[in-house]
Amino acid sequence: MVAGKVKKPGKRGRKPAKIDLKAKLERSRQSARECRARKKLRYQYLEELVSSKERAICALREELEMYKQWCSAMDQGKIPSEIKALLTGDEQKLPQGASGTKTSKKNNISSSA
């Protein structure tokens, strides 16, 4: 007994403060709003990421189709003009789909093989 108060066993630590119920509900609502906002941002980011990956896949499929056409033309004994331009170093003659990074990838593959 300390100064007339009887300690109850098992009740250690701070006593729960008498928090206003309305304030507690408002904090809970605010937390839920913030959680929904974070979730919305996360989903927007993921949707943009999926969209960019889908665009990259489409571009790679087009590039693959172009290379398949080149291979089939070469199997028939024809050399596509794009490959001639690559071999001669004339990149101005290349069509728009076969210039830029695609030609450098082709050059890197042929030089490393």
From TrEMBL:
Listed Basic residues bias regions: 1-16
UniProt GO BP: cell differentiation
Domain BZIP residues, every copy: 21-70
Swiss-Prot/TrEMBL keywords: Activator, Differentiation, DNA-binding, Nucleus, Transcription, Transcription regulation
Keyword Nucleus found: yes
Ranges for region Disordered: 1-20, 90-113
Protein name (Swiss-Prot/TrEMBL): cAMP-responsive element-binding protein-like 2
Subcellular location: Nucleus
Record bears the keyword Hydrolase: no
Upper lineage: Eukaryota, Metazoa, Chordata, Craniata, Vertebrata
Family, similarity comment: Belongs to the bZIP family. ATF subfamily.
Any one GO CC term of the record: nucleus
Organism this protein belongs to: Sander lucioperca
UniProt feature, compositional bias: Low complexity: 99-113
Range of residues in the leader sequence: none
Pfam families, A to Z: bZIP_2
One term of GO molecular function: DNA-binding transcription factor activity
CDD domains named in the record: bZIP_CREBL2
